[in-house]
């Protein structure tokens, strides 16, 4: 049909609406899920920031404690422990900075970093030299300053933890809001989809099921042998077109049945012709024997006349053999066949018979099939011989064997004049030939052999400009042994 009928258009729109509805709902759900996952990821990140901030506060206290120990001991023996504590403070500060997202959180981290640097400067540049020099008053004064810095760091850490917790609460509230909104939208989409699906189901039941039932009833009558059955065309849509197609099919079947009857009659005539050909073959053999016997004794013009008789007798015998091959169904005793070897042997035999003189023939590739080697060799011989005759002296013929998932193939190409389009349609019919001395039975017999193997022969144009014949055979796994 060149346009959409109402049925196809309405079904398309109905199912399209369902698809769009489900796609929209899925997109909303996935978007909401991505939003919730992002919120949860940020919540986890901020929770980790809280943990690191608390560890930072603890590390600062350890750092201050090692300062106090240095003052109490009165020497630099505790300086290594202090350095380790300072390193932990720096590591925790860098880690907590990775979790800071808002400007407020980053500002708190900057202030903690500055205060930590200030605390380290007070200890290394003031307290340690004063302790070593024994200046107790200076030590006490600087220790008091360090204590104020530690207190400021603790306050900043608490403020940072509060900011993290506030961000966590915001993300949790957002996730809950998105979840509730998504649930409502998904529920509304589901209810709408169920309604649309119910409407589509009712429409299909009324507009599709009934015509299908009529078609089924017509098919059952046809299966019972009623070739005159017809389905009433009541609609101008796909089902109406299907009913018209069904009616055309039954009419075609009725005509084909009549043709089959006629073909059976022709087949009977063919069997009769095969019988006659078989009977003619015997006297032809006798005639050929006597002619050859007479030629041994004849001389001059008589020998030339007998040579003509022998040549024409051989031609008649070739035609009779072709008729016999065409009339009888080839018997195929399947066995594994190396197609490359068959092609190579065939080319070698044609060379020995001087049928490839002046023609370059190459065989390449590999492939295997199941079939009768002698029959397949007959097909390849006919294809290569035809290609060599078409290419002529100085020509080229390429034989390529291949095998794939679809089966095996033997392609024969030549650089001759090719096969005209108007000739291809009747190329495989008996007695169709463009050769002066051809019988026109070779390709017909070859195709019969190929089809008996479950394959076929295709004809086309080669890349060389000549003809390309391809013998295709089914895969070995598709053929019963």
From TrEMBL:
Main localization of the protein described in the UniProt heading: membrane
Q: Does the keyword Transmembrane helix apply?
A: yes
Q: Does the keyword Transmembrane helix apply?
A: yes
Q: Which Pfam families match?
A: HAMP, HATPase_c, HisKA
Q: Where are the transmembrane segments?
A: 183-204
Look up the domain of life of the source.
Bacteria
Positions of the HAMP domain:
206-258
Which E.C. number(s) belong to this protein?
2.7.13.3
Q: Where in the cell is it found?
A: Membrane
Keywords per UniProt: ATP-binding, Kinase, Membrane, Nucleotide-binding, Phosphoprotein, Transferase, Transmembrane, Transmembrane helix, Two-component regulatory system
What does the record give as the reaction this protein catalyses?
Answer: ATP + protein L-histidine = ADP + protein N-phospho-L-histidine
**Record protein name field:** histidine kinase
């Amino acid at each position: 049909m060149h346009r959409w009928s109402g049925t196809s258009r309405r079904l398309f729109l109905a199912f399209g609406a369902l698809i769009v509805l489900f796609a929209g709902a899925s997109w909303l759900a996935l978007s909401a899920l991505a939003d919730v996952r992002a919120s949860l990821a940020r919540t986890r990140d901020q929770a980790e920031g809280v943990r690191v901030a608390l560890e930072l506060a603890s590390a600062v206290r350890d750092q201050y404690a090692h300062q106090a120990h240095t003052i109490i001991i009165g020497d630099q023996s505790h300086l290594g422990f202090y350095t380790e504590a300072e390193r932990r403070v720096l590591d925790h500060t860098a880690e907590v900075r990775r979790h800071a997202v808002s400007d407020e959180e980053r500002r708190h981290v900057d202030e903690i970093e500055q205060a930590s640097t200030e605390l380290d400067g007070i200890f290394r540049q003031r307290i340690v030299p004063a302790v070593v020099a024994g200046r107790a008053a200076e030590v006490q004064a600087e220790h008091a300053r360090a204590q104020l810095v530690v207190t400021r760091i603790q306050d900043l850490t608490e403020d940072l933890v509060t900011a993290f917790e506030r961000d966590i609460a915001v993300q949790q509230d957002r996730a809950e809001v998105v979840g509730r909104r998504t649930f409502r939208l998904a529920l509304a989409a589901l209810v709408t989809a169920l309604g649309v699906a119910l409407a589509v189901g009712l429409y299909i039941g009324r507009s599709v099921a009934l015509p299908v039932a009529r078609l089924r009833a017509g098919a059952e009558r046809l299966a019972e042998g009623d070739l005159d059955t017809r389905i009433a065309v009541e609609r101008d849509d796909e089902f109406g077109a299907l009913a018209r197609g069904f009616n055309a099919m039954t009419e075609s079947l009725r005509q084909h049945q009549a043709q089959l009857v006629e073909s059976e009659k022709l087949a009977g005539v063919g069997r009769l012709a095969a019988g006659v050909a078989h009977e003619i073959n015997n006297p032809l053999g006798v005639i050929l024997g006597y002619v050859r016997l007479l030629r041994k004794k004849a001389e001059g013009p008589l020998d030339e006349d007998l040579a003509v008789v022998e040549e024409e007798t051989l031609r008649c015998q070739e035609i009779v053999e072709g008729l016999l091959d065409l009339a009888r169904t080839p018997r195929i005793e399947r066995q594994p066949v190396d197609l490359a070897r068959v092609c190579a042997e065939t080319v070698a035999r044609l060379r020995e018979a001087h049928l490839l003189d002046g023609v370059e023939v190459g065989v390449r590739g590999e492939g295997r099939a199941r079939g009768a080697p002698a029959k397949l060799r007959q097909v390849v011989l006919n294809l290569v011989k035809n290609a060599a005759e078409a290419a002529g002296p100085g020509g080229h013929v390429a034989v390529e064997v291949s095998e794939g998932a679809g089966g095996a193939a033997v392609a024969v190409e030549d650089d001759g004049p090719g096969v005209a389009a108007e000739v291809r349609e009747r190329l495989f019919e008996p007695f169709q030939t463009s050769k002066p001395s051809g019988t026109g039975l070779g390709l017909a017999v070859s195709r019969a052999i190929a089809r008996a193997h479950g394959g076929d022969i295709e004809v086309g144009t080669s890349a060389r400009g000549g003809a390309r014949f391809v013998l295709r055979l089914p895969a070995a796994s598709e053929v019963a042994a």
